[in-house]
């Protein structure tokens, strides 16, 4: 058998939206993505992520059917941006969410990766995520950022737990 084609990364993802104009406004103006192209006859818009030619997001108007589909896309960003995301989302009128979908003021850390993440919804209910990989050893569980920081080797909390 031939070896599979090596994959370097994900180039393109697509989301369904109810209203293309509203979606373009949200992804361009609220999230700051670069609008690449709009094809009104096909009811689709494309956005560049990370600069032209790197990664593309397509949003497709699905119409006003009674059943809706909710999809998930994660945006790779710097740790400082993930840490700032809850307050920046709140300023834009968007709820920052933890892994369970509860409002939060801080990222959650997915210990097995490890990565810090903040979740939120677009106007169509699609689940979006800002995520940053951490350059630390993996741990178990998913915990709030503040708890992750307290559990680092050499942290004040760890020293207190050890009786030092």
Indicate the overall shape.
globular
Helix/strand structural class = alpha+beta
Strand content: 25-35%
The name of the CATH architecture of the largest domain is: Roll
Tell me how many strands there are: 9
Radius of gyration: 19 Å
Largest sheet: 5 strands, mixed
Whole-number tally of structural domains: 2
Enumerate how many helices there are, as a single number. 4
**Major sheet: arrangement of strands:** 5-8-7-6-9
Succession of helices and strands: EHEEEEHEEEEHH
Describe the structure.
There is one protein chain. The protein is α+β, with helices and mostly antiparallel strands and 164 residues long. It contains 4 helices and 9 strands. It has a 5-stranded mixed beta sheet with strand order 5-8-7-6-9. Strands 1-4-3-2 form a 4-stranded mixed beta sheet, with helices on one face. The longest helix is centred in the middle third of the chain and has 13 residues, at 79-91. Residues 156-164 have low confidence and may be disordered.
What is the element layout, followed by pairings?
Layout: E1 12-17, H1 20-30, E2 34-39, E3 44-49, E4 55-61, E5 72-76, H2 79-91, E6 108-110, E7 115-121, E8 127-133, E9 142-144, H3 145-150, H4 156-161
Parallel strand pairs: 1-4, 5-8
Antiparallel strand pairs: 2-3, 3-4, 6-7, 6-9, 7-8
